[in-house]
């Protein structure tokens, strides 16, 4: 190696967030593995980050008091502990920068390791005289400020005993300039034990908590493995064992968490039995408790915060409950009601929770994310309760209808919300009334007999115009602001108007009115308000022709820019009409045909809303990107791309900058002919020419993806502040889901989801000002939410982006990614999949700045199907340098092809930024990534439970657009599939078998000249080497002349694109005989396999197995160009280290021809040096080994970065960790 070795430096870690604590209302401290971070919650800026050591995992952060240094500088003393180690630190915050973000840095004071037992809690202790207030508590906000320094710390251990240590000196006397580097020379001898006590009940604890901050008043609550809690006073003069004062019995499982109330009068416990119990311990003998059930898995923690209980659970949710111990709780119907369920974390477990004095709840998840929630949102109405609603009753009928008689039955026929302060109602007697909801005053807008006994009401989005449809087929148009006189317009005499849609027109005084009549006809009208004349005119533009299915229209949208009307029907059809075809001399009496008729958009369910969005200049070649969104009563939303509109992207273009989405499970059956999973550029060009030839139009509505959000209904889609919001119903509960940030932002019981039984209005993505009205039985209820500007304490609900919520099974870096703009570094992108059934893609940002650490920027979040674990994935290049193919495989024999495109805004310019060392470096380009599913591979196995265990992908010279995917299966099958870009389909090329057991690994090696070797490894510990060159040649010879394929490639029928038969075609399938060679390398399963061409030294296959061994196999192979075969002359194990790791090796990579990196279940990363020997053998020596902070590591990959081509290694399992392996001269 020319005296060069490498050292693996950990550079990034995303693992479960296990500890959270607030420094103040602005700065949150978080613990993630060995990393301690301070974050400004208002902007999500990282103020400081420190690494505590390789053997650290932070379990809890315990804060002390604040020392004021100057008017703008403060210091917070705190300690962190994990396992048997504890560290005392200080956070110094400087706020002298004015309106800019404060600066912060950590300082180490003491590092104490090797405590005698596992630490379950720690507490700061003061002299009693130094604590102001009659009842010192653990919550600093509830007592006067403490100016004195703590003198002792108490440690509670897992075997139910406590030790109290005296601090060696006043912590605040340490100079502020103390180094922030790690201190490792301190040990237990620097602290003095002044008191030690064992509880009289000797048992093992899973949790424990102290109460109070003086030794004389110190209590300890022990949560035992015997399902009960013990409360005992620490300071006991009677002996070395302290008596248990109170025993709390009731749980049916191990206690995982225990908390005191701030006043010490109550204790909250959580357990393996999924319950939360609140114990009133004010009475010495009569201890009562309430029990709360609601979490669907084990509960980890619960805090008592004033009127609320805040709990976190293994089900990854945070729930807010009413505190049953408060006096006013008895006034409610159900004191154990869950007020809110916040679901933002993915996968399993929310591990940490903290609450600021301003009521901001921070939760840390097992997915590595940190979410922020607001308690004031519960007060404002983001709850499942209805206590903040009020009944809306019509005024006495004689106040607006003096001639009313006893026979006139009056009630609300329909209603709309026109603003945050105003609503409009149509009544049974034909009145249209407007209500000032703040003053609760009523006025009459209009009265006519034509609205008696029936009316269908709708308002414009601006709230200025209200339109009522009548039983006689006439429209009543009124101005809420009295801009014009009421107007009555004829539509189609005598035909009842069932639905009315009032859509924005070309300007603020122009509207399109779409009516759906009872005879299943649709009319379009133009409403124009003449400015300054108090006159409005309504003209009939024309009728729209519907398919012959007599289904109602439930959604409509008008695009003034393109003069298009989009309709959504009850039979799940989206229809598009070009109103420009009605201009000129066209006869408006003839219904207008649709230009797009897209069926089964939401299975067989109703299309409930449609939205069209134009992003100017953001498409390919600077054209407009035009998207259409729809929601349906199947619980899903769908996104389409409009191609061929004026100024927009054309049909032959490929735009790939789609935002981050979740793709839900599809309920579409095999006969769904509207779903277009993707088309190649060639296919689109062929389709374009065919459309021009046959129909004279080039407009195409292309389906991009579909995502299922709920098992109930989705009723509305809207975009606010750049965020996609979805409104829906489930179990009679109305909810608003923020799809951009993946959490439910609003929910309330509101009855059924009938279109005419509810109305909703909001002003921004945070729903600060929200109105909801709905029928509840025979009552009309109104809810108003008004959040003040001061309650908006943070911009984003995601303080830290998450990774996967469960174990990652495979991750792969995008190979040879090219910069998207001159001067920018090549982006570092990887894809990952795992047990959470999600396919995710991230951009890795490898540098630190003043306000940020290395980071993973999420690009894509897809869920191809429910219950199908993603076990393997591989990339493949296309002719476009910024477009790639990604192949994924996993459970139920599921394999898919995805088109992944990278893009940036056309106006983007590379910026130079300053890293943490002060160096000017180019910024890593903020990418947009589009991921489009092209095809799903048909099944080839008889057993549907067969799993695809691994993939390997390659291309052959001279065959552009053809990608060969080698897949190995749990039933020992080996199959090579051809994916053809022209037709976007999989064709089975080779089907073979040899191993008697499940195949775990597959790899390939393309030789110069065209030969291809395949390597398979199974649970029997053997590696088989195959020459598949001849089989590929025979397959291609037949495939290239296949008439079915040629016809399919030239076909422009969108119904066949991307659709596969359920069973694989075997027209051209080839078989393989015996492998060219086979070698036994492990005693059991081969979990890691990496093949490297060593040039003159032959081929090396490095493997790691369940037997903890690392093996190196050397293969000698010669390519015969004339016969087009690869002759394998020998294959033998040249090195085997039986004790390479302490447990099963999970993954193996080679970062060059001389270095191997391995990882195993013992959470160790090891770098090895490989030296071929002259006698054909090999020598492998360990260079270094270090601990990794990723539990259950299962996959590893490597790429190169930077001008010096450093190796970047990533290891993933429950989380992901990156290592920068730099060459260092000896």
From TrEMBL:
Major localization listed first in the record, in broad terms: cytoplasm
**Region Disordered, annotated ranges:** 650-690
Start-end of Acidic residues biased regions: 657-672
Residue windows of the WD repeats:
248-289
In its UniProt record, which GO terms are filed under biological process?
A: tRNA methylation
Keyword entries, A-Z:
Cytoplasm, Repeat, tRNA processing, WD repeat
Q: Where is the composition biased (Basic and acidic residues)?
A: 673-690
Where is this gene product found? Cytoplasm
SMART domains in alphabetical order: WD40
A single Gene Ontology CC term: cytoplasm
Name the protein family: Belongs to the WD repeat WDR6 family.
What name is this protein filed under?
WD repeat-containing protein 6
The opening ranks of the lineage are: Eukaryota, Fungi, Fungi incertae sedis, Mucoromycota, Mortierellomycotina
Supply the gene name: WDR6
């Amino acid at each position: 190696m020319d005296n060069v070795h490498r050292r693996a430096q950990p550079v990034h870690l995303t693992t479960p967030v296990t500890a959270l604590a607030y420094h103040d209302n602005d700065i949150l401290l978080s613990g993630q593995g060995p990393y301690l971070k301070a974050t400004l919650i208002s902007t999500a800026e990282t103020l400081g980050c420190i690494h505590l050591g390789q053997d650290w995992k932070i379990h809890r952060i315990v804060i002390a008091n604040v020392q004021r240094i100057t008017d703008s500088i403060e210091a917070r003393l705190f300690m962190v502990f994990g396992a048997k180690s504890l560290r005392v630190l200080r956070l110094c915050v400087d706020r002298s920068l004015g309106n800019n973000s404060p600066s912060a840095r950590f300082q180490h004071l003491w590092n104490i390791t090797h405590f005698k037992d596992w630490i379950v809690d720690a507490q700061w202790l003061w002299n009693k005289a130094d604590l102001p207030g009659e009842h010192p508590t653990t919550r600093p906000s509830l007592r006067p400020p403490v100016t004195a320094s703590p003198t002792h710390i108490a440690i509670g251990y897992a075997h139910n005993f406590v030790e109290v240590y005296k601090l060696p000196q006043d912590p605040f006397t340490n100079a502020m300039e103390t180094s922030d580097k790690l201190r490792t020379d301190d040990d237990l001898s620097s602290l003095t034990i002044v008191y030690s006590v064992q509880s009289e009940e000797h048992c093992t604890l899973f949790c424990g908590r102290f109460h109070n901050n003086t030794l004389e008043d110190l209590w300890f609550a022990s949560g035992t493995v015997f399902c009960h809690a013990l409360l005992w006073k620490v300071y006991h003069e009677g002996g070395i064992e302290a008596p248990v004062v109170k025993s709390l019995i009731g749980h049916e499982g191990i206690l995982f968490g225990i908390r005191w109330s701030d006043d010490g009068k109550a204790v909250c416990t959580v357990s393996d039995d999924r319950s939360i119990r609140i114990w009133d311990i004010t009475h010495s003998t009569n201890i009562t408790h309430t029990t709360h059930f609601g979490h669907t898995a084990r509960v980890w923690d619960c805090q008592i915060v004033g009127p609320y209980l805040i709990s976190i659970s293994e089900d990854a949710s945070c729930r807010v409950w009413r505190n049953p111990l408060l006096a006013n709780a008895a006034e409610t119907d159900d004191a154990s009601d869950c007020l809110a369920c916040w679901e933002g974390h993915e996968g399993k477990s929310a591990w940490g929770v903290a609450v600021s004095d301003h009521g901001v709840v921070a939760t840390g998840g097992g997915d590595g994310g940190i979410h922020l929630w607001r308690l004031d949102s519960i007060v404002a109405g983001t709850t499942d309760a209805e206590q903040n609603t009020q009944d809306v009753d019509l005024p006495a009928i004689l106040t607006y209808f003096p001639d009313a008689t006893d026979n006139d039955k009056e009630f609300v026929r329909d209603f709309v919300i026109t603003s945050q302060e105003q609503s409009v109602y149509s009544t049974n007697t034909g009145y249209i009334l407007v209500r000032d909801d703040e003053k609760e005053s009523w006025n009459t807008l209009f009265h006519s007999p034509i609205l008696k006994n029936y009316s269908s009401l709708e308002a414009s989005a601006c709230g200025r115009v209200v339109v009522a449809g009548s039983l006689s087929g006439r429209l009543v148009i009124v101005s809420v602001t009295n801009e014009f006189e009421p107007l009555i317009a004829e539509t189609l005499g005598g035909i009842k108007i069932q639905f009315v849609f009032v859509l924005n027109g070309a300007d603020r005084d122009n509207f399109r009115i779409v009516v759906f009549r009872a005879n299943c006809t649709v009319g379009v009208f133009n409403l124009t308000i003449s400015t300054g004349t108090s006159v409005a005119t309504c003209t009939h533009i024309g009728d729209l022709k519907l398919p012959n299915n007599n289904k109602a229209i439930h959604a409509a949208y008008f695009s003034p820019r393109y003069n298009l009307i989009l309709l959504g029907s009850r039979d799940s059809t989206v229809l598009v009409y070009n109103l420009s075809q009605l201009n000129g001399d066209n006869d408006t009496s003839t219904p207008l045909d649709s230009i797009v008729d897209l069926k089964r958009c939401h299975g067989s369910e109703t299309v409930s809303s449609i939205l069209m969005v134009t992003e100017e200049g953001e498409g390919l070649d600077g054209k407009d990107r035009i998207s259409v969104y729809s929601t349906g009563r199947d619980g899903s939303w769908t996104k389409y791309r409009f191609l061929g509109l004026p100024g927009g992207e054309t049909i032959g273009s490929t735009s790939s900058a789609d935002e981050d989405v979740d793709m839900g499970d599809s309920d579409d059956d095999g006969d769904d002919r509207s779903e277009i999973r993707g088309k190649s550029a060639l296919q689109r060009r062929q389709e374009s020419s065919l459309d021009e030839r046959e129909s004279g139009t080039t407009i195409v509505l292309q389906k991009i993806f579909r995502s299922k959000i709920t098992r109930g209904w989705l009723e509305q889609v809207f975009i606010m502040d750049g965020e996609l919001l979805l409104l829906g119903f489930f179990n009679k509960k109305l909810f608003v889901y923020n799809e951009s940030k993946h959490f439910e932002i609003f929910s309330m019981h509101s009855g059924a989801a009938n279109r005419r039984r509810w109305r909703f209005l909001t002003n921004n993505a945070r729903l600060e000002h929200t109105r909801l009205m709905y029928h509840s039985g025979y009552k009309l209820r109104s809810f108003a939410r008004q959040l003040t500007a001061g309650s908006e304490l943070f911009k984003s609900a995601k303080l830290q982006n998450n990774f996967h919520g469960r174990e990652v099974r495979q991750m792969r870096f995008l190979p040879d990614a090219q910069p998207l703009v001159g001067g920018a570094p090549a982006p570092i992108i990887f894809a990952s999949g795992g047990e959470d059934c999600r396919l995710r893609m991230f951009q890795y940002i490898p540098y630190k700045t003043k306000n940020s650490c290395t980071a993973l920027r999420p690009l894509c979040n897809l869920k191809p199907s429910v219950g199908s674990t993603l076990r393997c994935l591989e990339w493949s290049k296309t002719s476009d340098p910024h477009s790639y193919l990604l192949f994924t495989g996993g459970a139920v024999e599921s394999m898919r092809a995805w088109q992944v495109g990278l893009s940036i805004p056309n106006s983007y310019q590379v910026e130079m930024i300053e890293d943490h060392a002060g160096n000017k470096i180019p910024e890593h380009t903020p990418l947009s990534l589009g991921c489009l599913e092209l095809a799903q591979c048909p099944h080839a196995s008889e057993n549907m439970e067969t799993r695809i265990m691994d993939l390997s992908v390659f291309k052959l010279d001279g065959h552009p657009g053809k990608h060969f995917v080698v897949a190995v299966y749990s039933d020992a099958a080996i199959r090579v599939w051809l994916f053809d870009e022209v037709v976007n389909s999989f064709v089975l090329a080779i089907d073979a078998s040899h191993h008697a057991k499940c195949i775990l690994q597959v790899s390939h090696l393309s030789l110069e000249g065209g030969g291809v070797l395949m390597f398979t490894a199974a649970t029997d510990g053997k590696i088989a080497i195959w020459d598949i060159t001849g089989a590929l040649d025979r397959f291609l010879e037949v495939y290239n002349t296949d008439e079915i394929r040629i016809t399919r490639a030239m076909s422009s029928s969108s119904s066949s694109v991307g659709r596969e038969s359920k069973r694989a075609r075997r027209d051209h399938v080839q078989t393989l005989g015996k492998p060219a060679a086979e070698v036994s390398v492990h005693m059991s399963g081969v979990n890691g396999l990496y093949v490297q061409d060593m040039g003159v030294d032959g081929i090396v296959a490095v493997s790691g197995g369940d037997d903890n061994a690392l093996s190196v196999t050397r293969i000698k192979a010669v390519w015969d160009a004339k016969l087009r075969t690869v002759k394998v002359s020998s294959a033998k194990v040249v090195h085997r280290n039986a004790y390479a790791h302490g447990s099963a090796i999970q993954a193996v990579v080679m970062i060059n021809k001389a270095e191997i990196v391995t990882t195993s279940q013992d959470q160790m990363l090891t770098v090895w040096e490989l030296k071929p020997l002259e006698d054909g053998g090999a020598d492998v020596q360990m260079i270094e080994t270090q601990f990794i902070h990723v539990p259950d590591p299962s996959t590893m990959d490597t790429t190169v970065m930077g001008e010096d081509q450093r190796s970047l290694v990533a290891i993933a399992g429950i989380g992901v960790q990156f290592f920068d392996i730099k060459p260092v001269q000896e």
